[in-house]
Structures are given as C-alpha cells and as structure tokens.
Amino acid sequence: MIVITGASGQLGRLVIEELLNRLPAAQIVAAVRDPAKAADLAARGVQVRAADYTKPETLDAAFKGADKLLLISSSEVGQRVAQHRNVIDAAKRAGVGVVAYTSILRADTSPLGLAAEHRETEALLKASGLPHVLLRNSWYTENYLASVPPALAHGVFIGSAGEGKISSAARADYAAAAAAVLVAPNQAGKVYELAGDEAYTLAELAAEITRQSGKTVVYQNLSEADFAAALQGVGLPAPLAVMLADSDIGASKGGLFSADHQLSHLIGRPTTPLGKLLKATLV
Questions:
Q1: What superfamily in CATH does domain 138-169+194-258+269-283 come from?
Q2: What residues have CB less than 8 Å from 278, skipping those under 6 apart?
Q3: For the structural domain made of 2-137, what CATH number should be given?
Q4: Are 110 and 104 in contact (CB under 8 A)?
Q5: 37: Cβ–Cβ under 8 A, 6 or more apart, which residues?
Q6: What was the pLDDT predicted at 22?
Q7: Which residues of the chain have pLDDT under 70?
Q8: Could you tell me the residue ranges of all domains in the chain?
Q9: Where does the chain show beta strands of DSSP type E?
Q10: By the 8 A CB rule, do 61 and 78 touch?
Q11: Over the range 212-231, which residues count as b (16 or more CB within 10 Å of their CB) and which as e?
C-alpha cells in the first residue's frame, strides 16, 4: 500500500495518475485534508483518507497499513517543519517501510531561502531512523509560465535571476519520478537531484515567449527588493513575494541549475521541453 500526502494538490494528483498506470487503485491511498476534494479519485477505486498535517490524530488513521509514503512538502512556507515533523512521527508510529520526501535541488548547499525548511525536514527524517529517499526537485516550469499573461500584456517579463541558468521541469515530470521511486525496490538511502534536461535564463524565456506569441517581450532584471515590491503591487501576499524574489536571487547564483540529467534517467524519457509547455500556455 502506497500513501500519497497532499494528494488533492497539483503534484499529488499527478503522482496518483502515474501510480494508477502501474498499480491497482486499491493499493493507493490519497491522504487529503478535505476528502470531498478527492471524490473523483474515490470513484476510481483509490482509497481516500482524511489527513491534516496539523492534526496528528488524522495522520495515524491515514497511514495505517502503509508500506510506502510520499511526503509532499507542505505549501505553507514557514510552517513546514512542524507539519512535516507530525507526518514523520506518524509514519514512524505506523511502521511505514520507506518514506519519500519532495525536497529541493541540492538542499544541503542551496542558496535559496526555501531550502532551510527542506534541510530541517531532511534532518528530521535522518533522526527518525525511518528508511527514506529524497526527491530533491528543482523549479517547476509552471512557476515561471504563470507570469506569461502579464508579460504579454506589458511586453516585459520581470525577475531577479540575472544570467542564472534555470533547469526547470514540468510538474508532471517530477510526478513521474516520484511514482517511479515509489514502485521501485531498494530505494531507502538514495538521494535524487532532479532537474530538467534543458536550462535557460529568464532573458531566453522572454525571447521564447516573443518567438511563439509574435509579441515582443523583453526581460527586465530587478533588484531583489524591487522585484518583491512589484509582486506585492500586483496583489501577491508579502511573504510569497519575498520568497519568490529570494528564489530568483538564488537562481542567479546557480541554485536552480543542474546538468546531471538524473530526472530524465529516472523517468526513462527526456523532460518536457520549455517550448512545449509554453505553447500549451499560449493556446
């Protein structure tokens, strides 16, 4: 039995779709905060169980009988460590055979501020004594493609990544990797540094937007403070704006670049090209 936490989220749903191609639905557990949001999965035979990272009592019931567990990192930045500790403690109580955790690329040395909570979670896993495997994911390409509509509207793509190369991949690529690890034997102790096959700068992304859309879009590099202020100006909450600006600065320092191709090796195919994902965005 394989339990997927955060299963109603974007990554979790994709992981479950991958697993359904490989396993009987009855072997898959979708652990979600609100089971109603996973009614469609239940209709397909997936076990849906209530699980709230902040309520340990729900985790004990959700993890009962689990052989393997995918801990998808919480979306609540700043609260992740306490939430992940609850999951790890419950997994230990349940006697889970192996825990897979979605961390960040080179978490141990990453310049991104986001990496701090991932490092702490990795340390909690090590201290727990639970067999575990680390899926250190680079950026989702979708994170940047979300900025394509305003870039087209204004003719400018803004950021703070400078000339930093970004080896992003599609969310579906990372989901395929997680599923591959979950169904494979002898994964405990492994660390996967996962990133896209191709790397690009934000200026190159702007050029690709221009090429595909036919409308000129240029990249404007801002200071970290100015980029955060601009993001807040369009309605993003201050903590999210600060996190995104810090992540771009991290990218400028090489924090989101990798030429290892571990992701494509793991999933047995090339990662989804930037151009293909952008084309879908522009439709």
A1: UDP-galactose 4-epimerase, domain 1 (3.90.25.10)
A2: 145, 148, 208, 209, 212
A3: 3.40.50.720
A4: yes
A5: 8
A6: 95
A7: none
A8: 2-137, 138-169+194-258+269-283
A9: 2-5, 28-32, 47-50, 68-71, 98-104, 132-137, 156-159, 191-194, 218-221
A10: no
A11: ebeeebebbbbeeeebbebb
* Each residue's pLDDT tens digit, 108-129: 999 999 999 999 999 999 999 9
CA angle 216, 164, 258 (to 5 degrees): 120
Mean pLDDT, the chain, integer? 96
Question: Could you read off the pLDDT of 81-91 as tens digits, one per residue?
Answer: 999 999 999 99
H helix count then E strand count, the chain? 13, 9
DSSP label at residue 27: G
Task: Name the nearest CA neighbour of 107 among 85, 92, 124.
Answer: 124
Nearest CA-CA partner of 72 in 143, 178, 167, 146: 178
Query: Which residues sit opposite 186 in a β-bridge?
Result: none
Nearest C-alpha neighbor of 64 from the set 91, 36, 89: 91
Please say whether the beta carbons of 195 and 168 come within 8 A.
Answer: yes
- CA separation (Å) from 274 to 84, 148, 200, 232? 32, 13, 9, 27
Question: Could you count the other beta carbons within 10 Å of the beta carbon of residue 245?
Answer: 25
Q: Which residues contact 208 (CB under 8 A, 6 or more apart)?
A: 200, 274, 275, 278
The position carrying tokens 């703070």 is 160
Tell me the residue type at 47: Q
Alpha-carbon distance of 230 to 251, in angstroms, equals: 18
Q: Give residue 252's pLDDT.
A: 98
Q: Where are the alpha helices (DSSP H) in 21-170?
A: 39-43, 56-62, 80-94, 115-128, 141-145, 148-154
